[in-house]
Design goal:
lipoprotein; Lipoprotein; five-stranded antiparallel β-sheet; signal; mainly beta; six-stranded mixed β-sheet; 19 strands; DUF4397
């Protein structure tokens, strides 16, 4: 009888969430019931297409620059993530920092150039601690810009004077996320926003996006990349912003246009 009551409660919660715009997959994540999931971002300008590996096996193949894959289910336990150029087996970079992938967690693996523009890798562990009845959007920032190694990000209503507000995500350092890995994302109400990037402590924008819509229940990772499509075009503090959208259906990455 206890099991029946538990299942009934979960079905009831799922129904409420569905009416609010959430999904049953989110319910499972929020309750820590679903298997861990991972997606991959290729953020190396001029980098070759790559195959993304999980524990020595190709999980997602032939991924080009600025590709953001759908979430894929992985096992719990220790994980080694890596990537190699297509049609090769020599791993360009690997990471074994996830000792115990947990149910309900989302993992993001990012291929990016290091400070010397050699292949590198970063992993974000997102515990997905969203409230059961929340329809807020989830947002996190990540700096994949070796040419802009510390940034403040402002996610504000269009036309906001950033001299009067604090950064939404402050001190986003190269190869790091804000909120940091293992911490939950920032929660915001759906609406119309723009993103502004500055150097730390400065109010002078190095990037200002056009206005865009952030929907309820959105799950965004805002990733800064060097501007230009080739490493030869990279100049200090000139960036672009790529939005990786969470989900298990085809949700292509969005590049927010720079109005500067």
């Amino acid at each position: 009888m206890k099991l029946i009551r538990t299942v009934a409660a979960l079905v009831s919660v799922a129904s409420i969430l569905s009416a609010c715009g959430g999904g049953s997959d989110d319910v499972g994540k929020e309750l820590g019931l679903t298997p861990p999931e991972v997606h991959f971002i290729h953020a190396i300008p001029s980098g070759p297409n790559v195959d993304f590996y999980n524990n020595g096996k190709i999980l997602q193949a032939n991924l080009g620059y600025k590709t953001v894959t759908n979430f894929a289910t992985i096992n719990t336990g220790a994980q080694t993530f890596s990537y190699a150029a297509v049609n090769t087996t020599a791993q360009l970079a690997s990471d074994s920092s996830i000792n115990n992938a947990a149910k309900g967690h989302e993992y993001t693996v990012i291929a990016l150039p290091d400070a010397g523009f050699l292949p590198s890798i970063a992993v974000i562990d997102d515990p997905f601690d969203k409230g059961l009845l929340s329809n807020s959007a989830r947002v996190r920032g990540f700096n994949a810009s070796a040419n802009a190694q510390n940034l403040d990000l402002y996610l504000v209503a269009p036309g906001t004077n950033i001299n009067t507000v604090s950064p939404t995500m402050a001190g986003v350092a190269f190869k790091n996320a804000v909120p940091a890995t293992t911490q939950d994302s920032i929660y915001l109400s759906g609406g119309t926003y723009q993103l502004i990037a500055t150097l730390p402590g400065s109010k002078t924008a190095v990037y200002t996006s056009a206005s865009f819509n952030l929907g309820n229940n959105a799950d965004w990772l805002v990733t800064t990349l060097p501007a230009g499509s080739a490493l030869s075009q990279v100049v200090p503090n000139k960036i672009r912003l790529l939005v990786a959208q969470g989900g298990n259906t085809q949700t292509p990455a969005i590049e927010l246009p720079d109005t500067q």
